[in-house]
Amino acid sequence: METEASREHLGTTEEAGLGGQVRSAVGLLYRRFRSERPEGTLGDTALDVLTWLHKQGPRTLTQLSEDAHVAPASMSQSVNRLTSAGYAIRTPDPNDRRKVLISTTPEGADLALATRAQRNTWLDGRLQALSPEDQHAITRACALLSTIAGS
Amino acid sequence: METEASREHLGTTEEAGLGGQVRSAVGLLYRRFRSERPEGTLGDTALDVLTWLHKQGPRTLTQLSEDAHVAPASMSQSVNRLTSAGYAIRTPDPNDRRKVLISTTPEGADLALATRAQRNTWLDGRLQALSPEDQHAITRACALLSTIAGS
DNA sequence: CTCAGTGCTTAGGTATACTAAGGACTGACT
DNA sequence: AGTCAGTCCTTAGTATACCTAAGCACTGAG
Question: Is the pTM here over 0.70, yes or no?
């Protein structure tokens, strides 16, 4: 039937349910973002953490792991990379010494802002070429899907 | 416990540009999908490959690596996992014996369909609870973003 | 003051990605 | 024919990021 498969944009065919379309698009975008990443820089997860800390202030490890939908042990490793690079610090929570508060260093905050801006250049350029209606659809979809992902 | 930050859905604040919103949403969804994955099953990339092969028929390794925005060496490893699990086979291209055609086995095709359906259950349920307008916005956003990711 | 529960970390394993290097093959030019 | 640059694929070694399991440190209740 579908011999001209190359026009299908790999997974966004109509036969797939909406969930499948979302999953395909997310996978493609995620890998695309990763392929744009210059070497010697922070990974996406580490950068996300830095951005959250910058916006929200210090967070405990468990909070961060829940934010990212990741096991605490995984987040601990990501935080290790940030602290050993000097972009974040761990501080024992004075009220409950089982907890550790993670916060950005000034260098970490600067890096988060700078790297985000740089990495978004390509994508922003693409998005600004779209019609306002299309941009609005994307804005709405992002809000909806973020809510779903975080639930 | 609950700071004001927990209502922000982590990255979808208005101050971020559209590119940043997309990136945040993609990261959250990708990790969420991964966290839903049962153990002992194929990874997302391997499953994507299986799905593409099922839809499009045999592809060369280079084609697959371009589809996924990944280096050929990386795709070779993913294909190794599929072939060693019996879900795909490599066939030398009779016209150009440098090339290798990768195709699904019947088991691979079955698995691709079954696993996709199973993994999409959660997401489809969420999406069907949305209004038709919201669903349409997501459909449109997926198509647009897939095109951008693949360009 | 004991002890179950909570928060974090380390250890070991998997999936996925990269670069670098090399083997096999093709096609074009001597 | 013979050579050889270019293409396609693979393997090897390394890095990020995720997991579960195990264990330590601390808290708070009995």
Answer: yes
